[in-house]
Amino acid sequence: MIGGDVEELREQYLQLAGTLSRFGLSEYESRAYVALVALGSSSANLVAEISQIPRTSAYKVMESLAHKGFAKEMPGRPRTFMPVDPAELSKRLVGDVEDAFSKLSAVKDVLSERGVPQLVYTIMGRDRVLDKIGEMLDKSTYTFVMSSPSLSQVRSRLGRRISNAVSRGVKVTIITSPFVKAPKGVRVIRRKALIATDVISDGKTALLAAPDLSACGYTDNEALSKHLEDFLRIMGESAE
């Protein structure tokens, strides 16, 4: 239960915002959502004041929350926003995660029946995860597909390597959230409520990372990688 002195409330607020960032929200979006839940319904400027984000970013942050399914814009003027109920949001996010892992379990069962060895390697640490994504980019010959709510982090670290892949003739497809800036020369698909980061290179290697890129699983099992590539293709087609 939230209570106690101001410092304790501040710590709880920051902890909640940090937890939300694991589900693909930026720092500003996480803080704004927590503030909006506390307010119940509010203007973007009041949310900015309470969450201590720049007023110049207020509407952009609230619109992004709405597109990601964390808030709803109410009709009328002045513009106001309401939070999606935390219980409803929790049910949706848990359902998405369970569905994703259910699909992965099904893939594992199919491959096990075929006698295909499971070669999945765990990589820990954000820098190492980004290094592995960069390595996959550099080795791509034909296709590179990435679905991620954390594209800004990937782009700031690997933007040049993405451009190099495009220059080599690699068909790069990025599935990301609305309003997120994407690299030039890539095919971009916008989709709401992305959770994890999935990367497929040439349909031969695959990487599945946590929302904050703190850890990932990597496989060079071609059968598993191809199946995941097909899954991302279907997901992309359903969003268009």
Please provide a written account of the structure:
The strands form two sheets. Strands 3-9-8-7-4-5-6 form a seven-stranded mixed sheet, with helices on both faces. The protein has helices at about 5-20, 25-40, 45-50, 60-65, 85-115, 125-140, 150-165, 220-240, and strands at about 70-75, 80-85, 120-125, 145, 170-175, 185-190, 195-200, 205-210, 215-220. The protein is about 50% helix and about 20% strand. It has eight helices and nine strands. The N and C termini lie far apart (about 40 Å). It is of the alpha+beta class. It has two domains: about 5-85, Winged helix-like DNA-binding domain superfamily/Winged helix DNA-binding domain (Arc Repressor Mutant, subunit A), CATH 1.10.10.10; about 95-240, 2-Layer Sandwich (Endonuclease, Chain A), CATH 3.30.870. The longest helix has 28 residues, at about 85-115. The mean pLDDT is about 80.
Could you give the topology of this structure?
Blueprint: H1 6-20, H2 27-39, H3 44-51, H4 58-67, E1 71-74, E2 80-83, H5 86-113, E3 120-124, H6 126-139, E4 143-147, H7 151-167, E5 171-176, E6 187-190, E7 197-201, E8 205-209, E9 215-219, H8 222-239
Helix pairs in contact: 1-2, 2-3, 2-4, 3-4, 6-7
